[in-house]
Design brief:
Elements lengths: L8 E3 L3 H6 L2 E6 L11 H14 L4 E6 L4 H13 L2 E6 L7 H8 L3 E4 L1 H6 L8 H6 L3 E3 L6 H7 L1 H8 L12 E6 L3 H10 L5 E5 L7 H12 L6 E5 L10 H14 L8 H13 L8 E6 L17
Parallel strand pairs: 2-10, 3-4, 3-6, 4-5, 7-8, 7-10, 8-9
Antiparallel strand pairs: 1-2
Helix pairs in contact: 2-7, 3-4, 7-9, 8-9, 9-10
This protein binds pyridoxal-5'-phosphate.
Pyridoxal-5'-phosphate binds next to strand 7 and helix 9.
Length: about 300
């Protein structure tokens, strides 16, 4: 089984943090692997074990034409030698992500928009399971309890390095949320010891709160301390010039590359909350860099890749 490298944990040097005397260490999951990076491997690992247990030959899953999840899944399939199939939102289009999925040997099917919206309907998977009887189905974004359980290892990655920063503890986590799976995994791993703040990359009506609650309930854990904060800036994948300027400035000041859909919005939302006084002087937070940098290539605003 592929084992991701240890993600560096680095102190972020940014003037708005210094001004508020808030320390933020960034866990660079974007650096664990050139292709299977960010939170993706953690969300996939328990699904892969489940596929193995049932004797499946591979994985079928869903996503959009820029999906970081499908990209990591296809790369893992090629590297580890298992079959992959991807069900895509919308109509056929060529993006750098789609070109990679094809190059990694993923079988692609475009569902249109209505077809993709039906993904939570009972019976959605039946025709696909008939077509790919040897593939194990994984929900959108590698979600569900299995996805969350794999994310517990993210906490271990940070814990192992706190002493390098001279920290003996921290006050909470801050990360981008798409489905809420990674946040749920960290909340489970923390069992209430530290709060997990989720910066929502999607609008509130996407049901993240309900998905997080359902994972926590299914796990049987009672104690979990988390909070969801709107960071979507008007919609998923909606980008504005203030966001792009913030990403460019942050990269100049800290050397950390961000992308506009998840990590850029999450850090900008943190800045706003820090400036609004949400965190007392002396607070220490771990910000998770959830990766996704491959998605920058296909982005219309085309941020340069460093
Ligand atoms: C780069 C990036 N960050 C964060 C997320 C959100 O993770 P989750 O779906 O576990 O909330 C995703 C995917 O959904 C992502 O691609």
């Amino acid at each position: 089984m592929f084992l991701p490298a240890q993600a560096p944990l680095e102190l972020l040097q940014l003037d708005w943090l210094t001004a508020a005397n808030v320390e933020v260490a960034i866990l660079r999951l974007d650096q664990i692997d050139p292709l299977i990076s960010g939170n993706k491997w953690f969300k996939l690992v328990e699904h892969l074990k489940a596929a193995d247990r049932t004797g499946a030959e591979g994985i079928i899953s869903l996503g959009g034409a820029h999906s970081n999840h499908l990209h990591a899944l296809a790369a893992a399939g090629k590297r580890l030698g298992f079959k992959t199939a991807g069900l895509l939102r919308g109509h056929p289009q060529q993006t750098p992500t789609v070109a990679d999925l094809q190059a990694y040997g993923m079988h692609l099917h475009w569902l249109g928009y209505g077809g993709y919206r039906a993904r939570h309907d009972p019976g959605f998977w039946e025709p696909w399971q008939a077509r790919y009887p040897t593939l194990h189905a994984v929900p959108e974004g590698g979600g569900g309890l299995a996805g969350a359980l794999g994310c517990a290892a993210i906490k271990a990655q940070a814990d192992a390095q706190l002493s390098h920063l001279g920290w003996n503890d921290y006050h909470g986590w801050w990360l981008a949320c798409g489905t809420g799976t990674t946040l749920a995994g960290l909340a489970l791993a923390e069992a209430g010891a530290h709060p997990v703040y989720g910066a929502l990359a999607v609008p509130e009506d996407h049901g993240v709160a309900a998905q997080v609650e359902s994972i926590l309930q299914e796990s049987g854990r009672r104690r979990a301390d988390y909070e969801l904060i709107d960071a979507s800036r008007g919609g998923f994948a909606k980008v504005d010039s203030a966001l792009l300027a913030f990403i460019a400035q942050t990269e100049l000041d800290s050397g950390v590359p961000l992308e506009p859909l998840y990590t850029g919005k999450a850090l900008l939302a943190l800045k706003q909350q820090v400036e609004a006084g949400k965190f007392a002087s002396g607070t220490r937070l771990v910000f998770v860099h959830t990766g996704g940098l491959q998605g920058r290539r296909g982005f219309p605003h085309n941020l340069p890749l460093s």
